[in-house]
Design brief:
6-stranded mixed β-sheet, 5-stranded antiparallel β-sheet, 365 residues, alpha+beta, 9 helices, binds adenosine-5'-diphosphate, binds magnesium ion
Length: 365
């Protein structure tokens, strides 16, 4: 198997003076690693994938597999297997023949084909469907046939482009664990494109977050979630969304506090040092909903607001409180009694603080 290196890669569809669909992308995928490329529709995920696969010309930069430049190699010479959202099975072929097809094309012997199809379909739990045709399968089964067709060849690199995006929620959850399990078992270097932050965080070893063709952050799911590199990543990753409060850094005694519309938000000594040293004034303070409390009773240091919305999320409630034009979200228990329009008091945990420059959005703390 191989590692993959993407070095200063650009993709232009029109002239090179226009906006790049992929702008100066550099990232490395280690041998055997599972990397997700995460971002909203149109951010350049598929363009990146298609350049790695060889289906799309690389406008500038270099892509290497195991140290070798593959820029000019045709897709069939890159030893990759791809699974896309519309998996395009051959409608008139059986499951067996669909999965066996790449091996037949590679002129593998009949007995070995039978062996390998058996192995791949057992792993995917579709070995009882070998005689069926695609129209006799459910969406999830079809998707597994497409994955079977990809893994049967034991390629150097797997490329998945939103492979489960159109499946229903329950099946998606199941496919997330199955695909992850499969990748660990096979140990094949894998790139997985998705617009779904939960998919990326739950499956990948590392996540590359893209926005408008530009890589925003490339790190483990834990770091992306806990220490987003900028305010855009902070609000794109995590559901329900992180709340961002426009604050001013204010001197208080020997340290600093955050001033939010005249209310004081205390910060830890460590955060205080970093904020004081940053020389920034206007900032965005970010709080995840599990670190915000919304209550009836006023507590020391809490901020008064009114309840704007409440949503039952099954085992908990997402409460949204409004302070002038700022929305602050909290996860609260299902016995939460406040209703829309009620006065409330909002408390923020200073232990879970992210601070971004109001000017550039870049993380300061
Ligand atoms: P994603 O997969 O993240 O949704 P894409 O890589 O498909 O994004 O697209 C990135 C940008 O490039 C978009 O603005 C899209 O409209 C543009 N684009 C993609 N494919 C083509 C193409 N074949 N011709 C022209 N523009 C394209
Ligand atoms: Mg796409």
């Amino acid at each position: 198997m191989v590692d993959v290196k993407i070095e200063n890669v650009y993709k232009y569809y029109g002239s090179m003076d226009g906006v790049a669909a992929v702008h100066d992308l550099s990232m490395d995928i280690k041998d055997g690693e599972f990397v997700a490329i995460l971002g909203p529709s149109g951010c350049g995920k598929s363009s990146t994938m298609r350049m790695i696969s060889g289906l799309e010309h690389i406008s500038a930069g270099v892509i290497r597999f195991g140290g070798n430049v593959v820029n000019e190699l045709a897709p069939k010479d890159r030893d990759i297997a791809m699974v896309f959202e519309n998996y395009a099975l051959y409608p008139h072929k059986t499951v067996f023949d669909n999965v066996a097809n790449p091996l037949k094309l590679a002129k593998v012997g009949a007995q070995e084909i039978t062996e390998r199809v058996k192995q791949a379909t057992q792993l995917l739990e579709i070995d009882h469907l070998l005689e069926r045709r695609p129209q006799e399968l459910s969406g999830g089964q079809k998707q597994r046939v497409a994955i079977g067709r990809a893994i049967v060849r034991q390629p150097q690199v797997f490329l998945f482009d939103e492979p489960i995006a159109h499946l229903d929620a329950k099946l998606r959850a199941r496919m997330r664990s199955e695909l992850k399990r499969l990748q660990v078992d096979l140990g094949v270097t894998s790139l997985y494109v998705t617009h779904d932050q939960l998919e990326a965080l739950s499956m990948a070893d590392r996540v590359a977050v893209m926005h408008e063709g530009v890589l925003q952050q490339y790190d483990t799911p834990k770091v992306i979630y806990e220490k987003p590199a900028n305010a855009w990543v902070a609000t794109f990753v995590g559901e329900p969304q992180m709340s961002l409060l426009e604050c001013m850094i204010r001197q208080k005694g020997s340290g600093v506090v955050l001033d939010f519309q005249g209310h004081e938000i205390a910060v830890s000594a460590r955060a205080g040092k970093v904020l004081a040293a940053s020389k920034e004034q206007a900032v965005l303070a970010g709080f995840r909903p599990n670190h915000v409390g919304i209550d009836t009773r006023k507590k020391a240091g809490s901020i008064p607001g009114t309840i704007y919305a409440r949503q039952l999320l099954g085992g908990e409630i997402l409460a949204e409180a409004q302070v002038n034009d700022t929305m602050i979200r909290a996860r609260v228990s299902t016995d939460f009694s406040l209703q829309l329009g009620d006065n409330c008091s909002i408390s923020l945990s200073k232990d879970d603080l992210n601070v971004f420059s109001a000017d550039t959005g870049v993380a300061i703390y």
